[in-house]
Amino acid sequence: MSSLQGGAPVLEVEDLSVTFQRKGEKPTRAVDGVSFSVAPGETVGLVGESGCGKSVTSLAIMGLLPSRGVKVGGSVRLEGEELIGAGSRKLRSLRGAHMAMVFQDPLSSLNPTVQIGTQVTEVLLEHRDMSKAEAAAEAVTLLDRVGIPDPRRRLKEYPHQLSGGMRQRALIAMALACSPRLLIADEPTTALDVTIQAQILELLKELVVDTGTALVMITHDLGVVAGLCDRVHVMYSGKIIETADRHELFARPRQPYTGGLLASVPRLDAGRGTPLTPIRGSARDAIPWAEGCAFAPRCDNAQDDCLTEVSGSVVPLAYDGPGRELRCRHPLEHPTAPSGATALGAPR
Amino acid sequence: MTAAAAHAWGEEPLLRVRGLKVHFPIKRGVVFDRTVGHVQAVDGVDLSIARGSTYGLVGESGCGKSTLGRAILRLEEPTAGEVLFDGTDVASLKGEALRTMRRRMQMVFQDPLGSLDPRQNVESLLSEPLRAHGLGGGTAGIAEKIRGLLDAVGLPSAALRRYPHEFSGGQRQRIGIARAIALEPDLLIADEPVSALDVSVQAQVLNLLEELQERLGLTYLVIAHDLAVVRHISDVVGVMYLGSLVEQAPADDLYEQPLHPYTRALMSAVPVPDPVVEETRERILLAGDLPSPANPPSGCRFHTRCPWRQETRCDDEVPVLRELAPGRLVSCHWAEEIRDGVLQPKSADEVAALMGVSVRATGAGPIETDALVQGVDEPIERR
């Protein structure tokens, strides 16, 4: 926890929806009624499997979705300022300066034909009133801060000359160039090896503590979430289905989907032959959120009122104890789990 | 260990690899291809796999684990060493003999979409290996066999007329597995069989692999970067670093008490989906990146990043894989001292200062991401 944490939220997302419309096809709703907020110095995780809408959410926040064929609804406020419907000039001045993003694949998010130094200083020249010399000096500081050794030499190199971990560091340096209030990291370590992943996660943790940046961590890896995020939102088919503090979530998952995810991940600290309980089917088989619950066809707890909606609406996201929200009619019960123990076996 | 594996412990192992080396030449020049060096992707690996057991091979990308798997199948030509499959040296086989031998060793690939021909339907995909080897007993026999295969991997028979793109990732991997077991092989090499799949689907495929092993008495070599997956499925685990095995042990022993410094660091880096564990456990951060396999460090290859590096031996003396306890092999000069806590690790900062690198990645080789993004650990610098 950072001393800089707390205060007015940096990012407020309210009822965000993204619909893709292609000519002659039925519109696809990728994100549906997503609401969450992030305070300074807080790390919030958006977790889900591929296709659950977590990346589209991040692109919608950054205003990076194409304007054609995409309908974005709801409200996204960065420090109180509305971003949905804001002009592209306005967004450009905010992106990089007040909000920044780190993408999954560092090789394809860096320009292969431009030196690292030029790519880092570009942000500084665009958003901060700096001369070229000042920007170059600042770039050295930035690369050094994210742990790139010999930064002066690295500035002259091209992306292909750096290793994966280094490229990701360079991207993080670029994202941090203007000390943004909001940093969105979309699967920042998925393409990296575990030892390098550990280095990068450590770096992100330090940054949040040191600068009080609000971090939105988008990932499918529950292990990464367990180590990094203060609060976690689990997404399924474009909707948030469970929200909880990370300790609560891992100790007492309430949504059967969250429980199923935890039960299907092999754990390093579980012995050989510990049975895995997979979730039936795959996300593609799920019905969209037309009525009831989209997870119902794969859910072991599902009953009639999950599938065919009685009241004519989707299962709502409702209050479920302090700091928790849940979208489920038949949640998992955890009778009297003592705090500290997990639902899935004691810690090592 | 499964009962089958325990039973087979005393027998001749199904697969024995001795001193296997795979080196790829690095070529430079436009008109004349000069060889300017070699990438030592696999550099002297010994291992053996007992019948009916599962051997898990872990390591980071670029460590040579995929090349090792491919060299066992002769998909890569080994530079030196021998691969004894059921007593026959695969490396010396040619033509028809090799083809027949390959029937008994099959492979499951990482990317199920990339390894299935998009223009063949499932029926054609599954009957192809049978026809190629003249098995299955005619059209009727093959049809019968294919239905059995689909049933074994949990796909409906309606899948027969459909094409790979019509299936989800997990189902595609099931097709890949059905194709691999169509020839009733003895050994199945699975290279990252679940890393392209969503976690909820991963578990389905892992369970399927275990079920098939039990039913068909298969022997597995599972290659993966995910230590948790490997622990879950393996009887014996081998850890590779820069082309050689640094440690090998029964899975539970290895995870209970890793002996090699690299194994320790690797395990401490794997995130565990439990905040309580995450907050309490000790993390050993490594200094720097994986060194280039074209120019590996002298002595112990891990000495440039090792928190336990000593003044003597580590820099100039190559450690051999030695047996520390029954079934526990480790290649570290100081394994006993480290195990008994006589030697204390340095922090990543100290190692970094000592070796003149940063605590964080040094960017020695642009290998890892390219490999992972493309989905396979292709050997680097190969033309």
Automatic annotation (TrEMBL), chain A:
Q: Which GO terms describe its biological process?
A: peptide transport
Primary localisation category: membrane
- Superkingdom of the organism of origin: Bacteria
Q: Which residue spans traverse the membrane? A: none
Q: Where in the cell is it found?
A: Cell membrane
Q: Which residues form the ABC transporter domain?
A: 11-262
Write down the InterPro entries for this protein, in alphabetical order. Answer: AAA+_ATPase (IPR003593), ABC_Ni/Peptide_Import (IPR050388), ABC_transporter-like_ATP-bd (IPR003439), ABC_transporter-like_CS (IPR017871), Oligopep_ABC_C (IPR013563), P-loop_NTPase (IPR027417)
- Tagged with keyword tRNA processing: no
Any one Pfam family match given in the protein's UniProt record, by short name? oligo_HPY
Gene Ontology cellular component annotations, sorted alphabetically: plasma membrane
Q: Which key words tag this protein in UniProt?
A: ATP-binding, Cell membrane, Membrane, Nucleotide-binding, Transport
> Sorted alphabetically, which Gene3D superfamilies does this protein's record hold?
P-loop containing nucleotide triphosphate hydrolases
Q: How does it sit in the membrane?
A: Peripheral membrane protein
Q: Name one GO molecular function term.
A: ATP binding
Q: Which family does it belong to?
A: Belongs to the ABC transporter superfamily.
Could you tell me what this protein is called? Peptide/nickel transport system ATP-binding protein
Species for this entry: Blastococcus saxobsidens
From TrEMBL, chain B:
* UniProt cross-references to InterPro entries, sorted A to Z: AAA+_ATPase, ABC_transp_ATP-bind, ABC_transporter-like_ATP-bd, ABC_transporter-like_CS, Oligopep_ABC_C, P-loop_NTPase
> Does this UniProt record's set of keywords contain Transmembrane?
no
Cleavable signal peptide: none
| Superkingdom field | Bacteria
Where's the ABC transporter domain?
26-267
Q: Which GO terms describe its biological process?
A: peptide transport; transmembrane transport
A Pfam family the protein falls into: ABC_tran
Q: Name one GO molecular function term.
A: ATP binding
Record key words, sorted = ATP-binding, Nucleotide-binding, Transport
Q: Which family does it belong to?
A: Belongs to the ABC transporter superfamily.
Q: PANTHER family, alphabetically?
A: D,D-DIPEPTIDE TRANSPORT ATP-BINDING PROTEIN DDPF-RELATED, TRANSPORT ATP-BINDING PROTEIN
Q: What is this protein called?
A: Peptide/nickel transport system ATP-binding protein
UniProt source species: Blastococcus saxobsidens
